[in-house]
Amino acid sequence: MNQLQLEPRLKRLKLGGMLQTLELRLDQAHQEKLGHLEFLGLMLEDEIQRRASKALTRRIGRARFEEAQSLSDFDFAFNPKIPASQIRDLATCGFIERRESVLLVGPVGVGKTHIAQAIGHAACMQGRAVLFDKTARVLSDLGAGHLDATWERRLRRYLAPDLLILDDFGLRAFSERQGEDLYELISERVRRGSTIVTSNRPPSEWYALFPNPVLAEGALDRLINAAHHVTLEGKSFRPRQRPDAKERSADVIAAQAAENEPVRIATTRSTERARITAPGSKREAKTATT
Q: What pTM was computed for the model?
């Protein structure tokens, strides 16, 4: 049987991906004198890797991340107070296995969304279902469900993933309906899976955002007491991301160099004079002879 005869059979068995590496593996088998079982093992491993890669791409697509982020892209040295070891530990995703949650709290620009997405990406790598969204968009979506009788179906979408990431939680006070929707969402998710919440406000300020204090207590008591608290402190990364940031940095360096040039010249001349007139120098010896 030749390759042309093999192709339709592989596709019929939904193994068409093997055709991508078939020629390469045939050459390898010939050069290394591989046995039939070794050759088959290589082909099957290629297919397994191909399917795993496609599945990962689908999971990342369904997660709806704003950007493809990883912890290797995060500059922990920029803000030394950020708890790097705690964040790296969370990125192992053991908390998802235990159905725990994570609260990432800190001022604007310190990297809360980056870290949340990086942990979410790590979860996708482990084969877990993840969904990322802004809290305001989730509440808007659930609110629309009350108008067209699709609320329960919409809620199930946020309950289904192993990890739900609610970004920018508590930017403004919630309406009565939003408070009720959050209570239902949080109460169900605590039982079913893990949630990452990012917020500029500390959890102690979240209670006042709910119009109904009873719902606030019921929802937040479940979330806050079943979560890892990560406080991020430091200055904002965003000024470094401005389009003219590199250009401005070069200008600052040039300006500082120009500013320091007279001082450098004066220092050099002073050092040279000291060297020339130092005891034992040639100039000193010549002066003494004269």
A: 0.77
Residue 254 pLDDT: 53
What range does the domain containing 258 cover? 244-289
Q: What is the mean pLDDT of the chain?
A: 86
Between 13 and 93, the higher pLDDT residue: 93
> 96 burial class (0-12, 13-18, 19+ CB within 10 angstroms)?
buried
3-state secondary structure of 1: coil
What is the C-alpha to C-alpha distance for residues 50 and 52, in angstroms, rounded to an integer?
Answer: 5
Residues 197 and 248 reside in one and the same domain: no
Strands (E), 49-182: 101-105, 130-134, 163-167
Residue 53, Cα to own-chain centre: how many angstroms?
19
Are 224 and 90 in a shared domain? yes
Helix (H) or strand (E) holding 119: helix 112-125
